[in-house]
Design brief:
The complex is a heterodimer.
Chain A: H1 3-13, H2 19-49, H3 55-58, H4 64-99, H5 104-119, H6 122-132, H7 142-168, H8 171-179, H9 184-215, H10 226-237, H11 240-274
Helix pairs in contact in A: 1-11, 4-5, 4-7, 4-9, 4-10, 5-7, 6-7, 7-9, 8-9, 9-11, 10-11
Chain B: E1 13-22, E2 25-35, E3 40-44, H1 51-57, E4 66-71, E5 74-75, H2 80-89, E6 90-93, H3 105-117, H4 121-134, H5 150-162, E7 168-172, H6 180-195, E8 199-203, H7 207-213, E9 216-221, E10 224-229, H8 231-236, H9 241-251
Parallel strand pairs in B: 3-8, 3-9, 6-7, 7-8
Antiparallel strand pairs in B: 1-2, 1-4, 4-5, 9-10
Helix pairs in contact in B: 3-4, 3-5, 4-5, 5-6
The chains are: A mainly alpha, B alpha/beta.
Bound molecules: adenosine-5'-triphosphate and magnesium ion.
Chain lengths: 277, 253
């Protein structure tokens, strides 16, 4: 559950491999690499056979305008992801606090929100912001029409992530806190939450991947994110496969980086918590 | 504090006909107990007899079903600021230390004074340093709890309690999670506290501690205090069969 538990678990489960094991690992790695290479070559061959490698499908990637256009889209994706991520963190925290409050009505209400936003597909929420809300005379830019629903949809999940973190904090911490006279609020904010957040930081970062993927629904509201701009390129150059290929690689790299960040943070916090005297 | 009870004698803690159930389990059954200021009481008894529950009711970590608990003559408040204030005056030391895992030793000790009593940070740190010196862990002040041995952690936990200037301290098996070689360093601190006049209720099976400093030993079984006496009376000449059997069983350990 926690970062520290993850690290110690790994240490406990996997002892240092011996010489035999190391040889087996090397052989396994080699076989895997060969398989991956065959797979990649197969794809390239298929591209070639179907004519997807023709210069006309790729030449426009040599023009700087193509890349500025994609970069603009990328910047749009980053903006929506970062703002939606921030809002969902704040909302997730609020929903979690509501869900664990001592007022039954607040618990019920928060729980309803969490379940609703977790259960409803982001696309439906986006349609709601795009089609329904403007009917009530509320004007909203396309940025907010994509950012708010993506944020709401993630906030339900994040509330549950935070709650898992809070539950992972041992009960003795709370008991010790109230025993020295801390109020419920002080106990939550000074003792429980800081530890809970430390437990879930890697999970929170990896949830950002889901936010990034949700931002690709921006085409519904015509917000120029990277995928939306890619579509324009596809229409302009009639180059569907090559464009999607390039854009997919960019998304994969972006999400890979996010995942690496979460792993790095989990390692670092794990080490920090466990560092021996 | 409505009546002027100034020079009158008031017990530190008083249980009056206290009952508590967990479902059908009668875990506290008509507990009557008076702890005088400066008294050191040891609670002893078989596992599941209700010892932890008994002391945890004194700062309302556990609620009670019937009866009354008074701290310095006033009923234990049920909630809110008043309850927090009483808890601040009743120190609690746990079997598993429960130091705040994300805070340094020093920050553990100043947490209560700064956040509850409103002491300024610098003053609190000075006093904390003195307390840590008193329990012999001043060198660990800037480490986090996970870097300390069990015995050191428990001594920090005691210092954290002391920082609140408690009127009474409750100990729930403070040494039973410790390796044998660390038990004495914790007991020594507790003996020093007892000799310094601290009112203490201690759940422990450490007979030597009981014999050295306690005024009274309570023997609990099935949620009741079934025997009570000075340590000499109790350990050398137990009155009930249950107590005799129990003492036999812990001697053979
Ligand atoms: N939260 C709870 N819910 C239900 N039963 C409980 C709960 N806490 C304790 N009990 C039960 O109440 C009884 C008394 O528990 P308590 O912890 O007070 O015993 P104890 O004398 O401290 O025992 P030990 O020496 O094992 O610590 C036990 O039978 C225990 O199983
Ligand atoms: Mg117990």
């Amino acid at each position: 559950m926690s970062a520290s538990a993850g690290i110690s678990m790994r240490d406990a489960l996997y002892e240092q491999p011996g010489p035999k094991m190391r040889r087996r690992i090397r052989i396994g790695t080699a076989i895997a690499l060969v398989l991956v290479a065959i797979f990649v070559l197969g794809i390239i061959r298929q591209f070639y056979v179907t004519g997807q490698l023709d210069a006309k499908y790729w030449a426009f990637f040599l023009q700087p305008t193509t890349w500025t256009y994609l970069a603009n889209g990328f910047w749009g994706t980053v903006k929506v992801s970062v703002v939606a991520g921030a809002i969902s963190l704040a909302l997730g925290l609020v929903f979690m606090l509501g869900r664990t409050s001592s007022f039954a009505w607040l618990r019920g209400l928060s729980r309803a929100f969490i379940d609703f936003f977790r259960g409803v597909p982001s696309l439906l929420l986006i349609y709601f912001f795009f089609l329904v809300i403007p009917q009530y005379g509320i004007k909203m830019s396309s940025f907010w029409m994509i950012t708010l629903p993506v944020a709401l949809s993630a906030s339900g999940v994040l509330a549950e992530v935070f709650r898992a973190g809070v539950n992972a904090v041992p009960k003795g911490q709370t008991e010790a806190a109230i025993s020295i006279g801390l109020s419920k609020m002080q106990t939550m904010f000074k003792i429980v939450l800081p530890q809970a957040i430390r437990f879930v930081i890697p999970t929170l970062i990896s949830q950002l991947v889901i936010v990034v993927k949700d931002t690709t629904l921006a085409y519904v509201v015509s917000y120029p994110d990277m995928l939306q701009n890619a579509r324009v390129l596809i229409t302009n150059y009639d180059a569907l496969v090559s464009t999607y290929f390039v854009v997919a690689i960019i998304y994969i790299l972006l999400n890979y980086l996010i995942n690496q960040a979460s792993i790095a943070v989990s390692r670092r916090t794990g080490v920090k918590i466990l560092r021996p005297a | 504090m409505s009546e002027p009870i100034i020079e009158e004698h008031v017990p530190m803690v008083e249980y009056r006909h206290v009952h508590k159930h967990y479902g059908s389990l009668h875990v506290l059954n008509d507990i009557n107990l008076t702890v005088e200021p400066g008294e050191v009481i040891v609670v002893i008894g078989p596992s599941g007899s209700g010892k932890s529950t008994l002391i945890r009711t004194a700062n309302r970590l556990e609620t009670i079903d019937a009866g009354e608990i008074l701290i310095e003559g006033l009923p234990l408040p049920e909630e809110g600021k008043q309850l927090a204030r009483v808890r601040a005056e009743v120190g609690m030391v746990f079997q598993s230390f429960n130091l705040f895992a994300h805070k340094t030793v020093l920050d553990n000790v100043i947490m209560g004074p700064v956040s509850v009593l409103g002491v300024n940070k610098k003053e609190a740190e000075e006093e904390a340093a003195a307390l840590l010196r008193r329990v012999g862990v001043e060198e660990q002040a800037h480490k986090v709890p996970a870097q300390l041995s069990g015995g050191q952690q428990q001594r920090v936990a005691i210092a954290r309690s002391l920082a609140m200037h408690p009127k009474v301290m409750l100990f729930d098996e403070p040494t039973s999670a410790l390796d044998p070689e660390m038990i004495n360093e914790v007991l020594d601190v507790m003996v020093e506290l007892a000799r310094g006049g601290m009112t203490m209720v201690v759940v422990t099976h450490e007979m030597n501690f009981a014999k050295r400093v306690s005024n009274r030993v309570l023997f609990m079984a099935d949620g009741q205090i079934i025997e009570e006496g000075t340590p000499e009376q109790f350990f050398d000449n137990p009155q009930t069969d249950r107590a005799r059997d129990f003492l036999e069983s812990i001697k053979t350990h």
